[in-house]
Amino acid sequence: MQLINRLKGKRRSVDDLIFDTINVIFMILLVIVMLYPLLNTVAISLNASTDTVKGGIRLIPRVFTWYNYEHVFTEATIMRSAVTSVLRTVIGTGLGVMASAMVAYTISRPHFFLKKFVTIAFVLTMYMNAGLIPTYLLHRDLNLIGSFWVYILPTLIGVFNIIVIRSFIEGLPETLFESARMDGAGEFTQFFKIALPLSLPVIATVSLFVAVGQWNQWFDVFIYNSSIPELSTLQYELMKVLSNSNAAFGSGAGAASQFANAQGGVVDVVTPQSVRAAMTVVVSVPIIMVYPFLQKYFVKGLTIGGVKG
Question: Which residues form a coiled coil (predicted)?
Answer without folding.
Answer: none
